[in-house]
Amino acid sequence: MNHLKRLGTILVELGHLTKAQLDLALRFQTHQQAQGLSTKLGEFLLSQRCISAAHLEEALNLQQQLEDLAKATSKDRPAEASMVLYPDPRLFEVAPLDLARKYRFVPLALREDQHGRTLYLASSNERRSYLEELQFALGCFIMLIPATEEKIALQLGRLGEQAPKVGGNLLQRLRRRTRSKK
Fold first, then answer.
1. In which domain, by residue range, is 156 found?
2. In angstroms, how far is CA 96 from the centroid of its own chain?
3. What DSSP string describes 11-54?
4. Is the pTM of this model over 0.70?
5. For residue 96, how many other CB atoms are within 10 A of its CB?
6. For 5-46, what is each residue's pLDDT tens digit?
7. Looking at the structure, do residues 174 and 129 belong to the same domain, yes or no?
8. Does 86 lie in the same domain as 163?
9. In this structure, are 154 and 86 located in the same domain?
């Protein structure tokens, strides 16, 4: 299967594996293939206790989310590039810049289907507790794509001038909802 982003790269980017560990595992995998044996990278890394089952599951889920994001974006803008280079400033109409700065995310794509709207966000915010409030305020399901704080800050800085100045209404709704939960 040809994945948008390789599992090893994702594990390194998430900080669950070092580049040296990945290189060693890939050399082992190549050696195994030369002998006619097939070993999946994730299985090998688990067997060598380089990663935990939870880390493997997280990376595989992220890999699937990236593939879903690729389907949600246009053919001339691959999802992997969208994450880093081409976030869509028009999506700040759906997810206002004030919220993006508060919760540390960059909107990447919006997909609408029979189940409703799904907004894909690159996020450096590791607290997942804000998701319910954000989904309520934005009126759509949210899929998070992990990103470094550096990438988020860079994109928010670049897009800040281009983003529409909307969303005061949404911030007020979110604040009211947060206060009512307390």
1. 79-181
2. 18
3. HHHHTSS-HHHHHHHHHHHHHHHHTT----HHHHHHHTTSS-HH
4. no
5. 23
6. 788 988 887 788 999 999 999 999 899 889 988 888 999 999
7. yes
8. yes
9. yes
